[in-house]
Amino acid sequence: MISRPRAAATAVLASTLAALAFASSAAAAGDRQAPTTPGNFRVTGTAPYFAHLAWSPSTDNSGTVRYQITVSNGESISLPNGTTTHSWFLSAGYRYTFTIRAVDPSGNRSGSASVSATVPLDRTAPATPVLSVTGTGARHVALSWTASVDDGPYAVRYTLYADGAPIDVGSVTSYAADELAPGTTHTFSVVARDFAQNVSPSSNTVTATTSPADANDTTPPTAPGQLCTCGMVFQDGETWLSWVASTDNNTPASRIVYRVIVNGVLDHTLLGYTRSILYVPVGQTSRIDVVAVDEAGNQSAPATVMVTP
Fold first, then answer.
1. What is the Cβ-side half-sphere exposure of residue 190, based on CA atoms within 13 angstroms?
2. Label partner for 115 (CA 20 to 30 A): which of 12, 13, 122, 306?
3. pTM to 2 decimal places
């Protein structure tokens, strides 16, 4: 419970703060003096995807301004008091015009200053990756490579060449080439590609030999469990699958390959994953089988689901 003296003091403080706030608001409402125009607005440098801007600060009777910058592509930004530089992320290869104004707390706007610049194209390829073999099995070769440094802001993508055949592996820096025959030799190389489609020189070429199949391993993996679409079948034929991982007496779960078969035809394979998205014919019932294969080539019984988009 608040005592009477403290309650009175609180009331006085609240009244004083309200009066000050009103006075401040009234002063701001009465301020019609615009800030000075930002000086020496300039482009200090450009690089693929970037333009770097700078300017001299504005002055205002309020002592505080913010800076409003607009770009000819329709983008804009408001920067706080004290800011005198900004780097703008833009598409490479285009010319842009930048316009700056200062705005004070009362909304008074200064005159504007403009400057133009062309953001250069990205013509620099990523650095050459260095490839190495990190492991082999009867049906796979595991590979990794150094990340390629690039001047652009986007992730570098990699293309792995397995015996000359390209495989787009995305932005990862490791990959296992699977479904290889036991006891066979293979060559690999990798290139990096940036957002502007600049391609690095090819990495070093590595050679690896898969181990012989285990003649004593004749036990197939267990069938994939609980295969279902879980209601995720769409009118355009898009179908989501999930299942419980198979187990094997020798091959670890991460190395079991799943073959996804639609109406008797192999659609795609997955290594270790137990989810997939595929498309089936619209307007008919399709049979989807998922089969697990271990590194000795033993194949499980199929898990089956019927789908009608």
1. 31
2. 122
3. 0.66
Extended strands (E) in 48-140:
50-56, 66-71, 76-79, 85-89, 95-103, 113-118, 131-136
Task: Write down how long the chain is.
Answer: 309
Compute the distance between CA of residue 253 and CA of residue 234 in angstroms, rounded to an integer: 30
- Using one digit for the tens of pLDDT, what is the confidence trace for 159-201? 999 999 999 999 999 998 888 888 999 999 999 999 999 999 9
For residues 150 and 200, the answer to whether their CB atoms sit within 8 Å is no
What is the per-residue pLDDT for 1? 31
CA distance 247 to 223: 8
CA atoms of 149 and 125, how far apart (whole Å): 9
Q: What is the pLDDT of residue 283?
A: 87
CATH number (2.40.128.270, 2.60.40.10, 1.25.40.10, 3.30.70.20) of 131-209 reads: 2.60.40.10
Taken in order 24, 28, 34, 38, the sign of the CA dihedral is positive
Q: What contacts 122, CB < 8 A, 6 or more positions away?
A: 48, 49, 92, 151, 152, 194, 195, 196, 198
State yes or no: pLDDT of 4 exceeds 80. no
Q: pLDDT tens for residues 65-107? A: 999 999 999 999 999 999 999 999 999 999 999 999 999 999 9
Amino acid found at 37: T
Quote the CA–CA distance of 309 and 307 in Å, as a whole number: 6
The residue among 302, 148, 142, 123 whose CA lies nearest residue 224 is 302
